[in-house]
Amino acid sequence: MAWVNYKINNWLLITTENCLYKSGKNYILEPRITKLLAFLAQHQGIVFTRDELIENVWDGAVVSEQVVTQSIFELRKTLKKMDEDHWIITIPKRGYKLDIDVQQIYVDPNTGFKLEEFHSSHEHTNDTLIHASFPAGPMTRAFNETSKETPSVTINNSNTIKWNHWFFDFCILTMLLITILFISWSNEKVVLPISVLNPRLIHIESPPQSADNQLSSIANIIKDSLFTSTNYISSFSTQPNAGKTLSLYVNQQHQLHIELFNNISQTIMLQKNIHIDRNNAYTVINGLLNELIQSLNYNHKSINNNLSFTNTNTLYNYLELPSAINNDGNANMHYIDSINKLIKSNPYNSYLLAKRYIAYSIMLTINNKETSMPILMNYGKALEKSITNNPLFLSSEIYNALALHNLYQGDLVESEHYLSLAALQSKQNTALGYILLGKISQLTHRTKQADEFYSMAMYLDPSKETLQLCEKLVFISQIHTSKSTPRH
Prior knowledge:
- The chain is of the alpha+beta class.
- 48% of the residues lie in helices and 14% in strands.
- The radius of gyration is 32 Å and the shape is elongated.
- The two termini are 53 Å apart.
- The model is unreliable at 115-158, 189-194 and 483-488 (pLDDT under 50).
């Protein structure tokens, strides 16, 4: 039985090798992903439900629809690296289809030839000269047909024609070789890409509409650690010129899968699966952060104290906290209820108190219907009390929270002092840090400098939430933003 490969938009899906190939580029797929893509290619343009895919791709095995969704996500992730993420189309409330040109290619398993090539090599065999020692090639077939019409040629003439054929084919092959060498030389010239990628910009992506609190918390911890310990800029917003992509999702074995992909060299820099529970949360996450930063070729010291937690059970409970801001951009008061329960068990944990203070001040800025300034002031007092009891190690997040608290109280000198301490604890400033510097600059009548600080905040985190904080945090500010969104 012949093998079936598929030519999909100039890419060759080699089903026996589980890979997509084009012009020297090779992407390895998992066998189930290969089988899924091959099935969709075989039925190009047809919409299949998840149940139909389970029946045909998984052979009716007992698997959940989530397995299909995850497989489609992994396939799209690979296609995105190939700049072909438009292949798979989701039809709402129906299913998925492959919406691209497909050509099936049948391969003889014994010879490895495409069957159409194998058959074509036997075409016109009756047209060859009787005394020819090899089958006539495409370049000589016309000469052979002419010789049939003049059967009265001598042996010398026959040999002359044969040598002429050889010389003609040799000239053609030489011209082809010269053309190939010229094309190869031309391709070695440096061609600037249409969009220059920024090697210091990392796009952090996770499955859409993820309801996994732990996954979101780990992604935020990674983002904060990159700001604190490196000069890399990370963003959850889609960045077309990101030099690197960090993907996080939960695989079928319920493990956290992490992959760091270099969009410039098209190579995987880090790929691993980890299991997190209450007993290993601190060790596993701290090890992950160190390994991630090392894979970025960044010369750094160990960041064992970066997590600001000494109790692994407290860290695990922190990972389970929901997001402070919902997907619709509104404040999530359930976050305050959840972190208050965690603080009740850890009343002097300055990091938790700082996180609560910053989150509540953001909620107060974005949606003040369910928040109040007296509660925020009480949260600030609790934070100040905690640092007097534990002044040994304070992270940049804690110093930013203290700077914000003093800014609310009108103490600009103390606020600037805490921002300078935050700068000493981190390789680079955060978007919140630049917003606070902008507010202080406005209050001290340095308007142009304030605009620069707000622009830096939008540069680091080009989101609607950041713009609202620039405009409304502590007091109303007139933001002079450009028509185009700043790009990294």
